User: Fold this.
Amino acid sequence: MNLALLFSGGKDSTYAGLLAKKHKHKISCLISIESENKDSFMFHTPSISQTKAQANSMNLPLISVKTHGKKELELIDLEKAIKKAKKKYKIKGVITGAVESIYQASRIQKICDKLKLECFNPLWQKDQIELLNDLIENKFEAIIIGVSAYPLDDSWLGRKIDKEFIKDISKLKEKYKINPAGEGGEFESFVLNCPLFKKPLKIQGSNTYGEKNSWRLEVNVK
Amino acid sequence: MEFVKPIEDILKNNKIKFKTLNYKKLNKNNLESSDKIIICGTSLADNDFLKKTNLKKFDFIKYTNKPILGICAGMHILSSIYGGKLKKQKQIGPTDIIFIEEFLSMEPNRKHQVYSLHGFYAENKKYFKTYSFNACPQAIKHNSKEIYGILFHPEVRNKKIVEEFLRIK
Assistant:
């Protein structure tokens, strides 16, 4: 089936795209929403502008739409972007990286239903440790680019998601109930390389913003 | 995948041996070798299972006494096999429901939040009793068999319903 991938540049949407491809679906385009609201419940925001470089590496067209990020109104911008993909690339459905968030999943389901599109959520309800291990097994190179929960701090920014990371985040799960794959918004990630990429991306520069337990890393990749 | 894998995970976590089959591949042998059957849901856009030729694959339901749990599309199938009608009712997202009696471990007379994702509901008053209603029947049980239908998705936030079904002797 001809599909659009709702793409944030992070591990979940990228891995969802890989799974869709493994199931013989065709990804016709990526859709990214660039939200001005850094605290959006709906969209991932750190380093979102770098999805262009990721799309280039995947050799896929990108529909990038800006939104003010006001609650519920941002969904109108998402719907416009999906409509555009339907018209331009004749998509029959969308793929999302939703794992746990009923808030995100049900809103996207409603948009797809309205536009008469299929909605695929290949990671839905997946065990979060299993998800992290899958990324390693599938040779994902992903780093942390945002944190927003105690006791995570700026020392986690730039950290690779590897076995050591899984060990450390599992300890925080036990002690602080942190969702190990960040499904409660505890952290955000950025994919530098994976089997969908033609070539790995390299960080050319970065800036760090934040305080206490809320930090983001804006990277510039090539 | 997203409607089957979470159910498989519940079975694995409860150390239950299971086999997952596309309903089009159902046959007498694999039905006889199982002691319980779960019919999982499907996406909002998929109504292929309701075609007469496909629905016929589920005729075995009428002739077995094995416990069966039908989730969403699975509930549509259970009701349809016994001559019930499907009616339009779209519910997407969190829904508050109340059970009038205990139903697969769900406590009666208090609010439970469930995850809904359906465009239709099933009505079959002749063969099924309704245990929960919000705009339409949310949970039903066959009048004389261990056949349960749930319109919402218990694999999201309400896994204990599936676990209770697995405990039925």
